[in-house]
Amino acid sequence: MSKAIIKVENLFHSYMQGTPFEKEVLHGLSFEVYHGEKLAIVGPTQSGKSTLLQYFNAIFIPKKGRVIVDEQDTKDSRLNLKELRRKVAMLFQHPDSQLFKETVADDIAFGLKNMNFPEEVIEITIKKALATVGLDSNEFFYRYIFSLSGGEKKKVAIAGILALNPEILILDDPTAGLDPKGRVDFLNSIKFLHDKLGLTTIFVSSNMNDVVELADRVMILVDGKIEMIDIPENIFIKREKLLSYGLTLPSVVELVDELIKSGINVDEKIINIDQLEESLIKILNSS
Amino acid sequence: MELYKNTIFGFYREGDSLIHKIDPRIKIILLIVIIIFISFIRTFSGIVFIGLFLLLIIKLSNSSFFYILKGLKPVLPIILLILIFQIIFYIGEPGKILFQWNFIKISVLGIKVSCFMMLKAILIYFISSIFFLTTEMISFTDAMERLILPLQKIKFPSHEIVMVGVIAFRFVPTLVEELERLMKAQIARGADLDRGNLIVRTIKLSGLLIPLFISAYQRAEDLVLAMESRCYRGGEGRTRRIAKKLTILDFTSFIFTVLFFSLTFLTIRYFRLL
Ligand SMILES: Nc1ncnc2c1ncn2[C@@H]1O[C@H](COP(=O)(O)OP(=O)(O)OP(=O)(O)O)[C@@H](O)[C@H]1O
Ligand SMILES: [Mg+2]
Predict the structure, then answer these.
(1) Domain count, chain A
(2) What is the mean pLDDT of residues A215-230?
(3) Do residue B189 and residue A160 have CB atoms under 8 angstroms apart?
(4) Does residue B34 sit in the same domain as residue B128?
């Protein structure tokens, strides 16, 4: 197994600490994220996913427990926070608040200026970042943010963080609110980025089909506790458990169950469409 | 990075204490009475009396004194600044002067009067906090509307004014949330909003205001659409979903408070404490 780039040890989180509204939402999480992997974090709504993500780029600093990113403890007072936040790029759940400048170029430049990129390279970097997410820079460079569609906004938001040349990509429910084509496009560009730049990718998703398509490993987070963390094949075999957490199953898995019910003998471990196709062809040929 | 925590003031806390149960109309009237009374106090013993009274109310409402006190923290620097200015620039009968330099005079009386004002402001803060901690926004605005409804007869737009107030109040937490999101998004891209001197920080905060205003306007637009598509057309002829009647508790609490204050007032007067 490759080495861990993020280590979380016994992490607790409470909102509104020291008030009568105090509420513990993460109850002692421990896990590791490996270098270069794509980890999916899945859980019912309000289970603490977004809260957990904010520990990876030190927006939250642990009061109880430890988070180590690239061998640096985020609690360490000597830590260079800016450098850490350049390394760990984050796409928030609400892309609208992630874009806060008037034009696309201004917005992407925001991070570059904060990180003290020299003036001459900023324009080139912006164009390169737009190209990476598949947006034509002639068309989009001077576009107003409010004139963009939801999918375009997400892409611009990603361009804004990719411009900083990160090593870890954190995506909070990135495909929510995208239309089917936008979703496929988006997943492909994430795959492409991962393969081309070798970014470690951590993403939250409420869509199990995204998880099957993208994830190397899956974490199931329920009520602030890790219920499972494993490769997708081992996760989706536990159908009853997943359903009992209020989660859904990937479409292919549902299809496999239907096939088995109607007497077609496919392997119940199958989770994606290619495996299913292969297995069905085999069955057809043998009969 | 949690703004929410510091915006306690105005947040309702569920409960079923005695104070929670008093009719909001009575509570509003009592709040006004108490605030007026506080502004009339002129002696420290008066402050102590009110202080004791507030402690009793806090006890009865199941709130925590320290929790309310904490809500003062964000405005503490402003309070202290005002206090210092008041002391330095106090103009009144000079009395005994402790220190003088050019036009700056620090007198015993100045210190006394200024501390007094501050204590009064804190008392008012406390009583209003207790009020909002124990009164749901909905029932507060409903009560407000009923209290000023009679003014509708003289063409005063009570319903509309209350409605505007409700929406404004309702949007405070939403805006705080939005601001928190924006700040996090900027921090995540390397903005250090929490560092630098006052001027640098102010400039950086101004970068938050514009997007915040834009999103507030967008929300306002959404709200108008949502209200119109549900046929909202102002207050005339609207009836209430829940009609409230005053109970024994309301009368007793009203009478108790008014009696308490009259008695305090009289005793203090009598012993020439006020
Ligand atoms: N700023 C905040 N202040 C107080 N409580 C909060 C705050 N943000 C989140 N919470 C609470 O923390 C819990 C976990 O929230 P979180 O946003 O991490 O869940 P989530 O898994 O991301 O949910 P979703 O799938 O809806 O995005 C929830 O109960 C939520 O109400
Ligand atoms: Mg979330």
Answers:
(1) 1
(2) 96
(3) yes
(4) yes
Mean pLDDT of A209-215: 93
Give the C-alpha separation, B37 to A221, whole Å: 54
Does A146 score more than 90 pLDDT? no
Distance from CA of A86 to the nearest CA of B (A): 7
Using pLDDT thresholds of 50, 70 and 90, give the confidence band for residue B218. confident
Q: Which residue of A has its CA nearest to B6?
A: A16
B126 with B252, same domain? yes
Nearest CA distance, A98 vs chain B (angstrom)? 5
Distance (Å, whole) CA A134 – CA B213? 31
Strand partners, A229: A219
Write out the residue range of the structural domain in which residue B191 sits. Answer: 148-243
The 10 Å Cβ neighbour count of residue B173 is: 13
Whether A76 is covered by a domain: the verdict is: yes
In this complex, do A164 and B189 lie within 8 Å of one another by their Cβ atoms? yes
State the burial class of residue A162 (Cβ atoms within 10 Å of its Cβ: 0-12, 13-18, 19+): buried
Chain B interface mutation, best of A51, A81, A96, highest count of B Cβ atoms under 10 Å: A96
Contact A19 B188 (CB under 8 A): no
Looking at the domain assignment, is residue B143 inside a domain? no
The pLDDT value given to residue A172: 94
Tell me the chain B residues in contact with residue A54 when contact means C-beta distances shorter than 8 Å.
1, 184
Cβ atoms of residues A38 and A215 within 8 Å = yes
**Residue A4: both structure tokens together:** 């861990």
Q: Of A25, A15, A92, give the one whose Cα is nearest residue A53.
A: A92
Q: Which two tokens stand for residue A26?
A: 């993460």
Q: How many domains does chain B have?
A: 2
A50 alpha carbon – ligand 1 mean position (Å)? 7
What average pLDDT does this structure show over A107-122?
91
pLDDT of B152 above 90: no
Q: What mean pLDDT do residues B133-145 have?
A: 82
Residue nearest to atom 25 of ligand 1 (CA): A45
d(CA A47, ligand 1 centre) in Å: 7
Please tell me if the CB atom of residue A13 comes closer than 6 angstroms to any atom of ligand 1.
no
In this predicted model, what pLDDT tens digit does every residue of B30-80 receive, in sequence order?
899 889 888 888 788 888 888 998 999 999 888 888 888 887 887 788 888
CB-CB contact of B272 with B266 (8 Å): no
ipTM for the whole complex:
0.87
Q: Which range marks the domain in which residue A84 is found?
A: 4-249
In this structure, the residue with its CA closest to atom 6 of ligand 1 is A15
> Considering the entire predicted model, what is its pTM?
0.79
Ligand 1 atom closest to the Cα of residue A23 is: 5
- Inter-chain touch B187–A161, beta carbons under 8 Å: no
B67 touches A at CB < 8 Å: yes
**CATH code for position A169:** 3.40.50.300
Rounded distance, CA A38 to CA A33, Å? 9
Average pLDDT, chain B: 81
* Confidence at residue B259, expressed as pLDDT on a 0 to 100 scale: 81
Percent of chain B having pLDDT more than 90? 7
Say if A33 falls within a structural domain: yes
Distance from CA of A146 to the nearest CA of B (A): 10
Q: Does the beta carbon of B185 lie under 8 angstroms from any beta carbon of chain A?
A: yes
By the 8 A CB rule, do A70 and A26 touch?
Answer: no
Q: Report yes or no on B98 lying in a domain.
A: yes
